[in-house]
Design brief:
By secondary structure, the chain is α/β, with parallel strands linked by helices.
Length: 171
């Protein structure tokens, strides 16, 4: 992606604290490797105080890794991957961000890929948005657990493909 404009590292919340910490650690390493970036933490606070919520845990972990407070953006409405994409892209557009690197589990990134493509096709997302997918490294046991979880999510997505993304958003 280089220096072609403002870019963001998107770190979505996961199913549990372990997934959140894996994504936060990889996101921090990726952030430091490239310049001209912001960190966008995406996920609902579920009505909790920010610092005790999933996005708050990711933020605290990344701050401990040396990411400056001024480099964080937050999207706190999304409760699923479709909403991560739609709400994060809306915020990125407002901030003039032209590229995104999504940090998540390998199979979750496949879902992000499918949803970003659908969102571009449905014009929810600028078709010129540059998207990079950054997998966290996982053990074979973690990959198997993720395969079981993601199988159901991919089935839901394939059913969604026939519908407009707006019908999937939880208002």
């Amino acid at each position: 992606m280089g220096r072609r404009g403002l870019e963001v590292v998107l770190v979505p919340t996961g199913d549990d604290q372990k997934a959140d910490m894996q994504r936060a650690n990889k996101g921090a390493r990726f952030y430091r490797y490239y310049s001209n970036r912001f960190i966008l933490v995406s996920g609902s606070t579920d009505g909790k105080c920010f610092l005790s919520s999933q996005p708050g845990h990711i933020y605290k972990c990344m701050r401990k890794k040396g990411i400056p407070r001024s480099k964080f953006l937050f999207e706190s409405k999304s409760r699923n991957t479709v909403e991560n994409v739609i709400y994060s892209c809306k915020l990125m557009k407002e901030k003039g961000i032209e590229g995104v690197s999504v940090v998540s589990n390998p199979l979750h990134l496949l879902r992000f890929y499918l949803i970003f493509n659908k969102a571009k096709k449905d014009k929810y997302v600028d078709k010129d948005l540059r998207v990079r997918y950054v997998p966290v490294s996982e053990s074979l046991i973690d990959l198997f657990k993720e395969l079981c979880h993601e199988s159901m999510s991919h089935i839901k997505y394939f059913l969604l493909r026939r519908r407009n993304l707006s019908s999937y958003l939880k208002e």
